[in-house]
Amino acid sequence: MDAAPAVRPGLTLVAMCVAQGMILLDVTIVNVALPAIQRDLDVTPANLEWVISAYTLALATLILAGGALGDRYGRKRVYLVGLVTFTVCSALCALARTDPELIAFRALQGVGGALMSALTLSILVDAFPPERRTGAIGTWAAIAGLGFGIGPIVGGVLLHAFSWSAIFWVNVPIGVAGVVLAVLGVRESRDPGARALDPVGACLAAAGLFLLTFGLIETDRASWTSTRVVTSLAAAVLLLAGFLAWERRVAAPMVPLRLLRGRRFAAANVVFALVYLSLTGMFFYVTLYFQNLKGWSALRTGLSWIPLNAPFLAVSVNAGRLGAAFGSRAVVTTGTLVAAAGMGGLGSLGIGSSYAAAWPCYALLGLGYGLLVPAVASAAMADVPAASAGVGSGILNSARQLGSSVGLAVLGSLGTSAVSRSWREAIAALPHGVQLQAASLTQLVAGGQSEAVVAAIGPGAEAPAVAAFVSGYRAALWAATVALLTAALTAWVGLRPARATNTMTS
Q1: What is the DSSP string of 176-244?
Q2: If phi over 0 gives left and psi between -120 and 50 gives alpha, with beta otherwise, what is residue 327?
Q3: Contact present, 209 and 240 (Cβ < 8 Å)
Q4: Among 30, 170, 177, 381, which residue's Cβ finds the most Cβ atoms within 10 Å?
């Protein structure tokens, strides 16, 4: 690597942890503000999903391009461009006055986050010698996961004192501090043999993933057989197939498929995608459950997640030692099974459930994710050659964000389908005119806005509207539980220790 001689590993680690924690904080901090955004900007459930998905989709599709730009033009330089972009666009999100504006600025915020996220891990690999690298990566992964988990708590506190725009303004001082830390603590590095950029691959992947997510989210308001949904999903399949074909033949692919032929690396990416699919869906639906159905404040909802974060922090900081003692395969598998138990418990909550039934499930989720997140990151990077650290970390981060964006679309589609079935059955006996009016309110029912439904067609609609929402909530969270169980099986089969003679070559 072409690098300046001076480096401050400790300060570099702090800078990268702040950056990655802020990126993932912004994935979940928005969740607790969704009902406020929903009311203030009059947002439909489908567009509400886009407030989350526009950000995570931009992250997922551009992380790999960001890694290539950093390898070629300087990792510190490209990282700082991303950090400044992220910070400025956070302010623009806070100033948005319509949901299309907010969605557009969230996508641009994701562009900045992608440039940052693509390079945090490769900057750490450059800053730390091999004997200290595993510990640094474990700390980075733990702090990143903590940022993902404390987002709803921070959001709840901010919303208690300010409007929803505060969840975006909070990124501005953190971003400024991040710039100072990076300027002082990160040295410039690049790969003298960096691969050429792959704009065709980047465009094919971005377009395919966008249309896939768009098609899935559109099922919230259109049938699976509608022209819009079928066309979007078919085009997505063609574009993603074209992406894979292109990556096989291009001289410098954006995603070197040889890395994905490594069993442990491929399995780690699948696990990361599945576990973050589950967690993002949980935050989305549980927020609507407690705030819209139970009438909780944003502050109470945010603070209710403390039982999730406390065990996560306690366990994740020791995950490196646990991995060394028991192996990453055992740690990741155990973590996903524990998390699945917690997710299944949350999926069993009903109309009359109390917080006493929810908090033990949060504790199990925190314990499970505290075990698995650092262990998955370490297991993935252990089999990646040093020369490919940048692209390897980019693929891993992309898998996480892809799980969050496409996963939320999948769970949202399943949840809305269940709501629609339940609501249609409930209104079938109503007079034809009232039935048509009630059918037009399906989006409000799916968003848990039973008060608005009652205001439109009368108090008799409250019970069936609430029951329909709960049916969608359960469908989504049980699907998230299945995803975690699938992740556990993938970890057990795919993270078996590699034989000494079966190491990956660059």
Answers
A1: HHHHHHHHHH---EE-TTPPPP-HHHHHHHHHHHHHHHHHHHHTTTS-TTSHHHHHHHHHHHHHHHHHH
A2: left
A3: yes
A4: 30
Instruction: Say if CB 313 and CB 470 are below 8 A apart.
Output: no
CB 84, CB 112: distance < 8 Å: yes
Rg over CA atoms, the chain: 22
Compute the half-sphere exposure of residue 122: CA atoms within 13 Å on the CB side of its CA. 39
> Which token pair is 193?
């043999």
In the three-class reduction of DSSP (H, G, I as helix; E, B as strand; rest coil), residue 2 is classed as: strand
Residue 2, strand partner residues: 190
- Take residue 93 and report the two structure tokens written for it: 């999100």
In 289-388, which residue ranges form alpha helices assigned H by DSSP?
A: 298-303, 306-316, 319-326, 328-347, 355-382
Across the strands, what pairs with 189? Answer: 3
Is 70:390 a contact under the CB 8 Å cutoff? yes
Class of domain 2-198+252-418+471-494: mainly alpha
- Within the chain, what is the greatest distance between any pair of CA atoms? 78
Question: Contact, 319 vs 371, CB < 8 A?
Answer: yes
Q: What is the mean pLDDT of each run of 10 residues along the chain (506 residues)?
A: 55 86 79 85 80 80 78 86 95 93 93 84 79 74 70 84 91 91 84 71 83 78 82 92 88 76 87 91 88 86 84 76 78 94 94 90 92 83 68 76 79 88 82 72 79 80 88 95 96 78 40
> Can you say whether residue 42 is alpha, beta or left, with left for phi > 0 and alpha for psi between -120 and 50 degrees?
left
Q: How far apart are CA 329 and CA 491, in angstroms?
A: 6
**Token code pair at residue 261:** 């032929």
Three-class DSSP category at 3? strand
Q: What is the 3-state secondary structure (H, E, C) of 45-56?
A: HHHHHHHHHHHH
Taking the C-alpha atoms of residue 364 and residue 494, their distance in angstroms, rounded to an integer, is: 24
CA angle 56-362-117, nearest 5°? 25
- Give the Cα separation of 485 and 205 in Å (integer): 28
Nearest 10 degrees: Cα torsion 119, 170, 287, 108: -50
Which pLDDT belongs to residue 499? 62
pLDDT of residue 339: 96
- Lookup: tokens for 129: 């010698």
d(CA 66, CA 74): 11
Q: Select from 215, 260, 271 the least CA-distant residue to 486.
A: 271
CA distance 281 to 277: 6
Q: d(Cα 255, Cα 266) in Å, to the nearest integer?
A: 12
For residues 396 and 63, give the distance between their C-alpha atoms in angstroms, rounded to a whole number.
Answer: 10
Which tokens hold the place of 115? 């440039």
Phi, psi angle pair for 324, to nearest 5°: -65, -35
Residue given tokens 């991303």 in the structure block: 82
